[in-house]
């Protein structure tokens, strides 16, 4: 055995322990292997202890966020190459029973886009903090309780009122909706989007922060899509936050859950009109457009439930449907198909239903109805 400087092409620095067992009996080579395995294990254990001892000073004040990124519900092409970026960063559990992250007056939310997203100079960026479902910002007084700054590919939201989690407005901040009219999405690929939250603001001496990286998948062409929105389930709203159709809780005495609306798009972000629901049995239905099946509905029910249904219903404005009809999508004004739904639960059973609505070749939206 001898010690030599590490090969400079190798990552890191230090020394390598070189062990030669050439010509040694098999038993000896096995013994050397066991010895080295124990030595490496011991070294790794010591290193872990050392890191645990020194890391809290640098990292204890930082909370890692698990961030997912999805196309926004108000555009069919929000994650399509060459289109206006329109997607949502989710950094907390969307279930309204779970609190979001409290942000104090002066607190900041910072989003950094990679340089692949090109600033076209058109302006008109709209960046909104949501509480886990569409159209759920806090609006009190003249508008949102935060200012917005865009410098290069860095977007900073600064609160001028505290937003507690929870509060009278809902469970608190959980998402950021990026509608970036002044940017252009890059080519097909997977791109990192970083997000950091300083709940107390940079001027505070409190070091508690939250940060993480989510990845947006930019696709070459817009796929078929279904996106449930909240503006057709009021009250409450307007103004926002609107009712949350994704997590409904209804009394056993109520005959039905709230109606909700879903925007529908065909491929290439074309509005899907003339679509209606045809149930094939109690738990499965097809979204049909003429003679074609373009999507599906699946219902999971609590044990013993045998008398429940999902039906399509008219929604404003006229003609209201069903089947789906073309509207201008909320916030963007882009053309979309709109189809209304309403769920009726089994009056004799309490429990939780899960409703999945999907478009062939596209995404799936899941909604929950809990009967108490």
Report on the structure:
The structure is a single chain. This protein is mainly beta and 372 residues long. The chain folds into three domains: 2-59, no CATH class; 62-218, Immunoglobulin-like (Sandwich); 225-371, no CATH class. It is 9% helix and 39% strand. It has two helices and 25 strands. The chain has helices at residues 26-54, 56-59; strands at 2-5, 15-18, 62-64, 68-71, 86-90, 108-112, 118-119, 125-130, 146-151, 154-159, 175-180, 183-184, 189-198, 209-218, 225-229, 247-250, 260-265, 275-279, 284-289, 292-300, 309-313, 325-328, 335-344, 351-359, 364-371.
Average residue pLDDT: 87
Q: What percent strand?
A: 35-45%
Count of all domains: 3
What kind of assembly state do the chains in view correspond to?
single chain
Count the E strands: 25
Per CATH, the class of the largest domain reads Mainly Beta
The structure class reads: mainly beta
Compressed to H and E, one letter per element, the order equals EEHHEEEEEEEEEEEEEEEEEEEEEEE
Unreliable stretches (pLDDT < 50, length at least 5) are 1-30, 32-61
Shape: globular
Please state the second-level CATH architecture of the largest domain: Sandwich
């Amino acid at each position: 055995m001898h010690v030599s400087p590490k090969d400079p092409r190798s990552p890191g620095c230090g020394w390598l322990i070189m062990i030669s067992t050439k010509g040694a009996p098999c038993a000896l080579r096995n013994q050397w292997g066991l010895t080295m395995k124990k030595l490496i294990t011991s070294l790794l254990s010591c290193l872990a202890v050392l890191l645990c001892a020194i890391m809290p000073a640098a990292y204890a004040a930082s909370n890692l966020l698990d961030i997912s990124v999805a196309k926004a519900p108000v555009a069919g092409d929000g994650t399509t190459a060459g289109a206006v970026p329109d997607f949502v960063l989710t950094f907390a559990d969307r279930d309204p029973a779970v609190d979001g992250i409290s942000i104090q007056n002066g607190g900041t939310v910072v989003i950094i886009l990679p340089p692949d997203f090109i600033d076209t100079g058109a302006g008109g960026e709209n960046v909104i903090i949501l509480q886990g479902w569409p159209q759920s910002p806090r609006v009190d007084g003249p508008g949102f309780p935060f200012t917005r700054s865009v410098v290069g590919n860095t977007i900073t939201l600064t609160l001028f009122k505290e937003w507690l989690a929870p509060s009278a407005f809902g469970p608190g901040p959980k998402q950021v909706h990026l509608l970036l009219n002044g940017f252009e999405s890059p080519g097909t690929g997977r791109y990192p989007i970083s997000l950091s939250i300083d709940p107390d603001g940079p001027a505070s001496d409190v070091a508690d922060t939250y940060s993480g990286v989510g990845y947006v998948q930019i696709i070459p062409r817009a796929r078929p899509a279904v996106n449930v929105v909240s503006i057709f389930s009021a009250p409450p709203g307007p103004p926002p936050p609107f009712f949350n159709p994704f997590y409904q809780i209804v009394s056993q005495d109520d005959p039905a859950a709230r109606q909700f609306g879903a925007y529908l798009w065909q491929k290439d972000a074309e509005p899907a009109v003339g679509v209606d629901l045809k149930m094939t049995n109690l738990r499965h239905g097809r979204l049909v457009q003429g003679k074609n099946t373009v999507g599906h509905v699946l219902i999971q029910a609590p044990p013993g439930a045998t008398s429940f249904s999902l039906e399509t219903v008219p929604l404003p404005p006229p003609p209201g449907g069903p089947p789906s009809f073309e509207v201008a999508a909320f916030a963007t004004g882009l053309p979309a198909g709109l189809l209304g739904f309403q769920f009726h639960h089994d009056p004799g059973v309490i429990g939780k239903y899960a409703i999945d609505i999907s478009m062939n070749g596209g995404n799936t939206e899941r909604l929950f109805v809990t009967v108490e």
